[in-house]
Amino acid sequence: MRHTSVIARRVAAASVSLVLASGAAACGPEDSGEGGSGDDAAPAKGGTLTVLNSGPQEDFDPARLYTSGGGNVPSLVFRTLTTRNRENGAAGAKVVPDLATDIGRPSKNATVWTYTLKKGLKYEDGTPITSADVKYGIERSFAAELSGGAPYLRDWLIGGADYQGPYKDKKGLDSIETPDERTLVFRLNKPEGEFPYLATQTQFAPVPKAKDKGTKYEEHPVSSGPYKVVKNEGDGERLILERNEHWSAKTDAERKAYPDRIDVRSGLDASVINQRLSASSGADAAAVTTDTNLGPAELAKVTGDKQLAARVGTGHFGYTNYIAFNPKVKPFDNPKVRQAISYAVDRSSVINAAGGSSLAEPATTYLPAQKSFGHTPYDHFPAGKSGDPEKAKSLLKEAGYQDGLTVTLTHSTASDFETSPEIATALQDSLKKAGITVKLKGLEENDYSDTVHDAKKEPGFFLAHWGADWPSGGPFLAPIFDGRQIVKDGANFNSAFLNDPSVNKEIDEINKLTDLDAAAERWGALDKKIGAQALTVPLFHPVYKRLYGKDVENVVISDWTGVLDISQVSVK
């Protein structure tokens, strides 16, 4: 699992830039709750769509990307076995077939998954896409020089842990079988009912072995999607895509591919992006951003202008900002201290620090408030919007701290959405009312990340955040609460060092389920169970508010990514 700070920067952007955020489904133009421009006419074909992003579109190689990374740009070039349903809101959190005829056929207790490719699939040069190409695309993602993509296959595939990629091991992975040109069979180490979700990752994009140029493949990857790369400048700083004439809509029910050309410009200043989209002049009238949020001041200005407000897309993604405890560090080894802090938190002040109620929604559950995650409402430590300092004081007294206590809160010095000094200060102020003196320890962003994810250095009390690689409770709860995922010498995300056999067992049982709705219900129940231990204090789920140009139509924003889906957009 990749930590959300990375995903966030690539996909959404409230903390930055990145990944997306979550909450009840809300998408499309502001005040309408629907995609589109309000015009009933069919979306126009042709023209050039411009993408203005702050985050770089670097490493444009399917082995090194996440499907959702880059605000959906990779999905225009790289098709995968399955993909996300390209619809607004909650409907977009569903996994659907892409290159494959279905989302996968499980057997042997979900340890074997079989896929059949659709007929008539072709690359940009007109050659057919085969099962061997998909297998090779996956295998090359194991090469050390192409690292950076989703790590699940290394853990899930039999033999994956020791495999080093096709450049060193010519034999390939025996756990991926290709009995014929259209069939793939995956053999897993353990049951994984969510394999169809994993098959949306770009590692599942086909790569013709004869065209593979290793680390230079990103300069001109061979397209299986509706667009091909015609220019890649500055490692993705400027990416120009044009139509892949051999792509057929008959084999692709998800991507609409209305524009003839897509011009992706990255590395821009966020304020400049919003200024250009607001002015919406020239080529910027047909421009969008997939990673730059409106800030509080910008949002206030936009809200007061009806024309601008009509050009704001609202997105949600599976993402939670929270306080993390390390119970190995005193006084956080005492559950009553953790409970006291849970009661003392003033979420209204935290939300204000995060940009206000338009950009953040209060959270009392660890799982985001979406059905696909299995969200089950609960509030084990009800303190209202502004906290309950008296209840907190009572619990501190029971814990032996009748005169209060002093603790240190570690946070990043970067003024971003997730772990900023502003949020830390808001918590400092609210906990003071409960007799808890909070000393703030700000660390430069990289130092912060290295510290809080090091099992040997992890502080007792710090700001954290997590987002899911797909809309399910699995990639949300397992990395944080599965005791078998505690990493002693590397990046550890189980900050509470929870190793509860009953929790581990339930995770295994849910992973056996191939009924994703049934699995979601179980994930929600597990979240509620873990939440009672006060190992975290959920604070808020970010909301993404992004402008788009006046000539942009057919806006679709799903709860899978939380960002405008370029594959659906048309321009006037």
Description:
Residues 1-38 have low confidence and may be disordered. This protein has helices spanning 4-11, 74-77, 131-140, 152-156, 195-198, 270-279, 296-303, 306-309, 335-344, 347-353, 389-398, 421-432, 445-452, 474-481, 501-511, 516-531, and strands at 48-52, 82-84, 95-97, 105-107, 112-116, 176-180, 183-187, 227-233, 238-243, 261-265, 287-288, 312-315, 319-325, 360-362, 405-412, 436-443, 461-467, 536-542, 544-547, 552-553, 570-571. The chain is of the alpha+beta class and 572 residues long. The two termini are 40 Å apart. The strands form seven sheets. The chain has a five-stranded mixed beta sheet with strand order 8-9-10-1-11, with no helix packed on it. It folds into two domains: 4-264 and 545-571, Periplasmic binding protein-like II (D-Maltodextrin-Binding Protein, domain 2, 3-Layer(aba) Sandwich), CATH 3.40.190.10; 320-542, Dipeptide-binding Protein, Domain 3 (Dipeptide-binding Protein, domain 3, Roll), CATH 3.10.105. It has 16 helices and 21 strands. Helix 9 runs antiparallel to helix 11 (389-398), helix 10 (347-353) packs antiparallel against helix 12 and helix 15 packs antiparallel against helix 16 (516-531). Strand 6 and strand 7 (183-187) form a beta hairpin. The chain is globular, with a radius of gyration of 23 Å.
